[in-house]
Amino acid sequence: MSFRTFKRRLKRRLGLLPPKYKSFVVGSAENYESMGRSQFEMLRFWGLREDHYLLDIGCGSLSGGRFAIRFLAPGHYCGIEPEQWLIDEGIRH
């Protein structure tokens, strides 16, 4: 592990840097909440209802999916993401 990597991990553990899963998906940790909410609100605007099914391809760390999961009926959300660690972090946090 390089010194640079060590330094970055230490800063994350100390809370000086945002978690990686937030900035990996939307580019900036500051936008994580607002991007997820706007993604969900756009789906609602275009007619998403509680009884619909949603296939979220590239769901990342569930920035938008977490709103849909709470909104949709149980079993009506399916997220697909090639980076398993992102899903794990989204579920954990």
Q: Any overview of this molecule?
A:
The chain is mainly alpha-helical and 93 residues long. Helices cover 52% and strands 9% of the residues. The protein contains five helices and two strands. The chain has helices spanning 3-13, 20-26, 32-45, 65-71, 84-92; strands at residues 54-57, 77-80. A two-stranded parallel ribbon has the order 1-2. Strand 1, helix 4 and strand 2 (77-80) form a beta-alpha-beta unit. The longest helix has 14 residues, at 32-45. The radius of gyration is 15 Å and the shape is elongated. The model has no long low-confidence stretch (mean pLDDT 86).
Instruction: Give the mean pLDDT.
Output: 86
Oligomer: single chain
Helix content: 40-55%
Q: What integer value in Å does the Rg equal?
A: 15 Å
Extract low-pLDDT stretches: none
Q: Percent of residues in beta strands?
A: 5-15%
* Major sheet attributes: 2 strands, parallel
User: Tally of extended strands?
Assistant: 2
Summary of the model, kept short:
The chain has helices at 3-13, 20-26, 32-45, 65-71, 84-92; strands at residues 54-57, 77-80. The protein has 93 residues and is mainly alpha-helical.
List the main descriptive attributes of the protein structure presented here.
single chain, 93 residues, mainly alpha, 5 helices, 2 strands, 9% strand
Please outline the helices and strands.
Layout: H1 3-13, H2 20-26, H3 32-45, E1 54-57, H4 65-71, E2 77-80, H5 84-92
Parallel strand pairs: 1-2
